[in-house]
């Protein structure tokens, strides 16, 4: 028989290729699945790469190696490592209870690398990070907060107030000469940590077991609770994707799928068991490790969006910017931005992908306007048509309930409303790259008026499906009625927030550039009428929002967390208070007040005081809310000291004439002294107390917001 031999060139090629092949790393123990399939196992624990790729159950059995002449060092087993970790935790807890700060912990060895820990380095809350913005030497790199943010508003407002103080001093005959008592006794002190915050400090470096699966009954209850609460407000996750829900099905899913399941359970647990919510959140973060984030899937985008929402509503909104950027990257990698990528899918999948893409866009608009940063998704990249009308969606997805269809319709109107945020960034905030405060006021007035008119058109269209309630109507509702009308309430809050966003630059421009001593009349300056109209609308928006938020805090305490609305309520309660104080400064100016007779200054003052109460109620342990209230209270003290008019003194002539005011500070004049007081109040607002890393990460988590009574 003739022997067939490969060509000489082929042999040479195979030899060279074989020489180039890297050697596989040998492992001591292969998993059971790889041994049964006689496949190579890389030994990665707790799940090897092959089992993770094939969604197989991965188990390792320790096999006693055959005795050899060489004495090999015995590697610790997973059980031994777990026992060692528990012993270390016990030692740490015992040291913590005795008050010792010097804890000797051994450095992690190479054999402990497979134990996954919670990456707490990125877990600083928005309050702790953002309050460092104006430190001369910030403790941490907290990033840039631009024109549309509350930080920029505070900075501009305080500068305008300090500039106006000399003019206010000159115009008043009676100025309080004893501000020092308030100043000396009002330095801000961070709140004492709650028991829950203390627990989180102690457990910040605890071991996280990402593959723990709750009982099936608990999973089903949490899923059902999620889809009737947060899941209806963020309708880009399908409940049918989790059915049938069994432990085996959960075990076979991918890491991104497990992360999605855990963050869903975290949302569902917020109003039921906050401690469990934190455990689910920790698992989701650990599951979203670097290898998982390199990929792209719908489950990964869903998990990232829900993770951002959870972070925002548990005082972690600064870190949500990082996960939002990952969501944008994954959505584009998945092709959600390209209309052609939808053609290969059926009607139901197309709608799901659209809602997911516009969920990323909505979050992009919200975070960009809140943090004062350019949008990551420009309008030119939004070429996919918005999700279909609710009636068409009902025909295509008849299995959904009517309650879910209302959520889809709400999502569509929210998407169109969030587009106004982008328009505001483009037309009056210069894409959050620079503040157009020096721009001609006429341009701001025209841009603002156009946006407000378009916003009124949106409101008229929305009324055909969701008649937005007034604050007076909401204040008559019980907790159950608030939940029944939640989509109307949420859209109303968002509408007032967008209105204040549009009005902000015009208000600040007035404070910065309009001369206080100018003889402004409606004839000499036609913009005075535009200013009055803006102030009236801004006061109404701020007042309506504050009344609704106050009612929700006092009469429907679970509403905000059940509908992922705590952050938007807390953020805009502070925004409303800032706008009201700016309005008070404008109304005080003599040149304006003579022509602004339609606005009651005392009413604005009462609304501001009410706003500070609301901010304290909704913010509670939020450091930003506490510092914001403190700074505004000090601003009000200075304002009151400077606006003690002759008429006010005459009302109390018998008493006031006998009161001797203390002498003013000898080193400074009144105007400079009050200006420094305002500047110091602003510095106190943005300063951060020195703390070690653990305190910094956990000092303001603020789980007190979960005490519902």
TrEMBL record:
Residues 30-60 form the Zn(2)-C6 fungal-type domain. Keywords: DNA-binding, Metal-binding, Nucleus, Transcription, Transcription regulation. Gene3D superfamilies: Zn(2)-C6 fungal-type DNA-binding domain. InterPro entries: Fungal_SecMet_Regulators (IPR051127), XnlR_reg_dom (IPR007219), Zn2-C6_fun-type_DNA-bd_sf (IPR036864), Zn2Cys6_DnaBD (IPR001138). GO terms for cellular component: nucleus. Residues 174-183 have a biased composition (Polar residues). SMART domains: Fungal_trans, GAL4. Pfam families: Fungal_trans, Zn_clus. One of its GO terms (biological process) is DNA-templated transcription. GO terms for molecular function: DNA-binding transcription factor activity, RNA polymerase II-specific; RNA polymerase II cis-regulatory region sequence-specific DNA binding; zinc ion binding. Residues 93-114, 174-202 are annotated as: Disordered. This is Zn(2)-C6 fungal-type domain-containing protein. It comes from Verruconis gallopava.
């Amino acid at each position: 028989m003739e022997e067939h031999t490969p060509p000489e060139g082929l042999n040479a090629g195979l030899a060279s290729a074989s020489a180039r092949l890297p050697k596989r790393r040998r492992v001591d123990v292969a998993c059971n699945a790889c041994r049964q399939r006689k496949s190579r196992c890389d030994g990665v624990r707790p799940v090897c790469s092959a089992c993770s790729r094939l969604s197989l159950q991965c188990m390792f059995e320790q096999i006693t190696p055959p005795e050899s002449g060489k004495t090999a060092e015995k590697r610790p087993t997973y059980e031994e490592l777990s026992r060692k970790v528990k012993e270390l935790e016990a030692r740490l807890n015992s040291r913590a209870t005795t008050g010792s700060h010097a804890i000797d912990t051994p450095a992690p060895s190479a054999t402990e690398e497979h134990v996954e820990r919670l990456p707490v380095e990125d877990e600083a809350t928005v309050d702790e990070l953002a309050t460092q913005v104006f430190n001369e030497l910030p403790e941490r790199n907290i990033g840039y907060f631009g024109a549309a943010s509350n930080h920029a508003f505070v900075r501009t407002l305080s500068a305008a107030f300090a500039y106006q103080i000399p003019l206010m001093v000159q115009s008043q005959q009676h100025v309080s000469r004893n501000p020092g008592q308030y100043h000396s006794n009002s330095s801000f002190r961070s709140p004492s940590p709650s028991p829950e915050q203390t627990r989180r400090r102690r457990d910040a470096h605890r071991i996280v077991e990402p593959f723990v699966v709750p009982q099936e009954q608990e999973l089903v209850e949490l899923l059902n609770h999620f889809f009737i609460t947060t899941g209806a407000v963020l309708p880009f996750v399908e409940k049918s994707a989790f059915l049938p829900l069994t432990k085996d099905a959960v075990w076979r899913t991918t890491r991104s799928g497990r992360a999605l399941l855990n963050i869903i359970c975290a949302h569902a647990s917020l109003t039921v068991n906050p401690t469990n919510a934190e455990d689910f959140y920790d698992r989701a973060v650990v599951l979203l490790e670097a290898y998982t984030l390199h990929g792209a899937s719908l489950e990964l985008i869903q998990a990232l969006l829900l993770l951002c929402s959870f972070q925002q509503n548990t005082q972690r909104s600064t870190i949500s910017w990082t996960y939002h950027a990952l969501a944008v990257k994954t959505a584009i990698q998945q092709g959600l931005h390209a209309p052609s990528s939808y053609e290969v899918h059926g009607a139901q999948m197309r709608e799901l992908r659209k809602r997911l893409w516009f969920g990323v866009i909505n979050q992009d608009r919200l975070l960009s306007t809140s943090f004062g940063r350019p949008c990551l998704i420009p309008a030119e990249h939004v070429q996919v048509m918005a999700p279909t009308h609710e009636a068409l969606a009902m025909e295509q997805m008849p299995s959904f309930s009517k309650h879910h269809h209302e959520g889809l319709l709400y999502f569509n109107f929210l998407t169109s409303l969030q587009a106004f945020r982008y328009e505001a960034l483009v037309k009056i905030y210069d894409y959050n790259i620079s503040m157009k405060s020096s721009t001609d006021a006429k341009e701001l007035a025209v841009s603002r008026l156009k946006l407000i008119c378009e916003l009124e058109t949106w409101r008229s269209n929305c009324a055909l499906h969701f008649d937005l309630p007034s604050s007076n109507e909401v204040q008559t509702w019980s907790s159950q009625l608030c939940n029944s009308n939640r989509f109307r309430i949420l859209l109303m809050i968002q509408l007032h927030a967008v209105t204040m966003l549009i009005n902000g630059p015009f208000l600040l421009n007035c404070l910065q550039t309009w001369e206080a001593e100018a003889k402004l009349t409606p004839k000499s300056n036609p913009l005075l009428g535009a200013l009055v109209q803006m102030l009236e609308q801004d006061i109404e928006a701020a007042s309506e929002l504050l009344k609704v938020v106050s009612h929700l805090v006092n009469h429907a305490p679970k509403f905000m967390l059940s509908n992922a609305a705590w952050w938007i309520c807390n953020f805009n309660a502070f925004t409303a208070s800032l706008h009201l104080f700016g309005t008070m400064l404008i109304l005080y100016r003599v040149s304006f007040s003579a022509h602004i007779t339609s606005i009651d200054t005392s009413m604005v003052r009462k609304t501001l005081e009410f706003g500070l109460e609301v901010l304290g109620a909704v913010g509670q342990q939020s450091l930003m809310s506490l510092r914001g209230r403190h700074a505004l209270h000090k601003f009000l003290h200075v304002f009151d000291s400077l606006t003690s008019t002759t008429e006010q003194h005459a009302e109390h002539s018998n008493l006031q004439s006998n009161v001797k005011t203390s002498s003013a500070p000898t080193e400074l004049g009144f105007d400079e002294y009050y200006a420094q007081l305002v500047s110091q109040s602003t510095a106190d607002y943005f300063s951060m107390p020195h703390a070690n890393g653990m305190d910094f990460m956990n000092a303001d988590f603020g789980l007190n917001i979960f005490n519902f009574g």
